[in-house]
Amino acid sequence: MHRRTALSVSAALLVAAPLLSACSGGPRPGTAAVVGGERITTSALQAQVVAVRDAQNRADGSAAQLIQSSPGLERVKLNKMIQTAVLERAAEDAGVTVSPREVGEFRQAQLEKAGSSERLEASALEQAQLAPAQLEADARFKLLRDKLFEHYGSQDKALERLAAAAKELHIKVNPRYGVWDAQQIVLGDQATPWITQRTRPEQPAAGA
């Protein structure tokens, strides 16, 4: 049976501050989750959420609609932060890396496809709850995921390795944000399926 787990289109690493800080023992006040013995702090999570809310509030004519359409933003962001850590561990185990140059090329291709930075940012905000400052981390996330799928030769094999990495990280989540589903690699009821197709933007023609 095909496993359907959640790794949404948007990928969100913290840009302004580290996602994780050292942690000994179990969750403590100020902790949203513990992943591999490292804390995802509530302040780090809130920084992700505030960045998106600020961008939504700046959207002319659609601020209220954007905010209303993303009521579970805290859980969405924490889900992605945990999945990012899982992806990083699985990629490290497989020897898979992404270079800054690859990220830059990916972002340039995205920009050319969108037609302008304004359109790209508006689309990311509406469709994936991504603030402009989160786009670079999102690009790296997608590239790393695609490379991992390529490395294992099949999506099912890659998902098996991701599930194993998640298990090794002994993930614990503050109950206020939901329950971590180790089998599906997802937090609570986040039901967005893993992206099965490659998400690398079409590259511009040579000489374009």
TrEMBL record:
Record key words, sorted: Signal
Keyword Signal: yes
InterPro entries listed in its UniProt record: Trigger_fact/SurA_dom_sf
PROSITE patterns attached to this UniProt entry: PROKAR_LIPOPROTEIN (PS51257)
Signal peptide: 1-22
SUPFAM superfamilies attached to this UniProt entry: Triger factor/SurA peptide-binding domain-like (SSF109998)
Domain of life of the native organism: Bacteria
Entry protein name: SurA N-terminal domain-containing protein
